[in-house]
Amino acid sequence: MDRKIIIGTRGSELALWQANFVKDSLEAIHISAELKIIKTQGDRILNLSFDKLEGKGFFTKELEEELLAGTIDIAVHSHKDLPTENPPGLIIAAVSEREDPAELLLVLKDCTDVRQKLSVKFGGLVGTSSNRRKAQLLAVRPDLEIKELRGNVPTRIGKLRDEKYDAIMLAKAGVKRLGIDLSEFHVEELGPTEFIPAPAQGVMAIQIRERDHILYEALQDLNHPDVAAELSVERNTLKLFGGGCHLPLGVYCRKENDKFQVFTSKAEDGESFPDRLFIETDTLEGLPELIVAKFAKDRQFPSKVFISRDISAGSYFRKALEKNKIEIEARSLIRTVRTINKFDSYILKNIDWVFFSSKNAVEYFFQLEPQFPKGVKFGVMGTGSEDMLRKNGHFADFVGESTDTADVASDFAAIANGTAILFPGADSPMRSIQQGLSAETKIIDLPVYETVQEENVEPTGADILVFTSPSNVEAYFVDNLLQPQQKVIAIGKSTGKKFEEMGVSYKLPFSPDEIGLAEAVFGI
């Protein structure tokens, strides 16, 4: 190409990083380029929240106008800031690789309480301008106070440093691209399957004039079609919902083990409890329409759901179902009993890891008041065990989030093989994690409780039955049969195996926790 390309960009540090990345990429394929900084409505108006700004594209409109006028040849955007439809005459010629779309919660160290989920002190003040973030935060921490936060990434971090907030939320991608040191804060990383990001979060979009065919062809060297395909699901879902940046919608699509997985969170507004959905499929075709149909206001939900676990009034699962007027029948079909009253902490002297496979194991072990040596690490199975560990004042260094214990065992073995590991647990454990460890690993099983099945378990007439352990399955089906209209959700594969032995089909949630179980109910 014999002409110099003019790249239009906003003037923030992150926007300039992105524009320079594109400039360097163009020069690597022998295309000369220079930057032109353009101020947008979103840059000028900093005293209003996003949902009070008029129109759409308040970070992109001015760049698009200059592109149409011919004063620039390329506009570089954070893809999530773009409206779902290009102005006539403009197209997205290329999209970048996707940077990690996780969210970061930065917490002042004086305001950190590890006993709380997300580690923000009770009633803490959290800064964010995103209704999507606000709704998902309040769903798991309704005690938090959310306050508007505007400005570029360094400005937002500066406001936290000045103690105007106890914590703030940022996209990990921007922090990573700018190389910002966050060591002065406590940092909680929230992955995109746990805290669902904005459509196209972490991706840069390169926009050009539709008629500029030569430039389009040149930019295909920078394009990532696999990312574009996944973004089409996210962006078309946003389009079908008729939303913009103010809509409390999170959509994340990825390919995992030759399957497409889509995670969606949608609320009416920032104050409302969000509905969540997880879909796994072989093809992307028709996915946006399917997602929107699952969120339709006239959708028929099951009238009653049984779960084999006691559910507190404030639990995520209860709030998610009761919001949609679904009756919950919650009763555990087993009970646990402590098996030891004393514990010799000398056992911990040469221990490297303590691994808990259930929250019961955490609870009963800490009743023994163990004294841990310096440097001991903690592993847990699932977020329920992680939350119980937090309540006892400790972070998990490893969290097994898969519903397949074999996968968790493999992941844990990769970091813990050859060490000494204590496994507090039931008196007859399945030992799924232990079996995945190498022969060089020192394994100590410590029974701290036993499970007792209830007798004469009453049947349920619920539409959906959720089973949270193999023992609960065994207890229920001693005296009861599954009715033809009833559907089953098993919290993990070990629970699911009980149904496979019975020849009963079941649904598996993405994650073995209350959010995953609610997603599974919503997806049926």
UniProtKB/TrEMBL annotation:
Binds 1 dipyrromethane group covalently. The keyword Transferase applies. Residues 5-214 form the Porphobilinogen deaminase N-terminal domain. One of its GO terms (biological process) is protoporphyrinogen IX biosynthetic process. Signal peptide: none annotated. Its cofactor is dipyrromethane. Residues 318-506 form the Tetrapyrrole biosynthesis uroporphyrinogen III synthase domain. Keywords: Porphyrin biosynthesis, Transferase. It catalyses: 4 porphobilinogen + H2O = hydroxymethylbilane + 4 NH4(+). The modification S-(dipyrrolylmethanemethyl)cysteine is found at residue 245. It is an enzyme of class 2 (transferase). GO terms for cellular component: cytoplasm. Pathway: Porphyrin-containing compound metabolism; protoporphyrin-IX biosynthesis; coproporphyrinogen-III from 5-aminolevulinate: step 2/4. One of its GO terms (molecular function) is hydroxymethylbilane synthase activity. Pfam families: HEM4, Porphobil_deam. Its EC number is 2.5.1.61. Belongs to the HMBS family. The porphobilinogen subunits are added to the dipyrromethane group. Monomer. Tetrapolymerization of the monopyrrole PBG into the hydroxymethylbilane pre-uroporphyrinogen in several discrete steps. HAMAP family: Porphobil_deam. This is Porphobilinogen deaminase. It comes from Mucilaginibacter psychrotolerans.
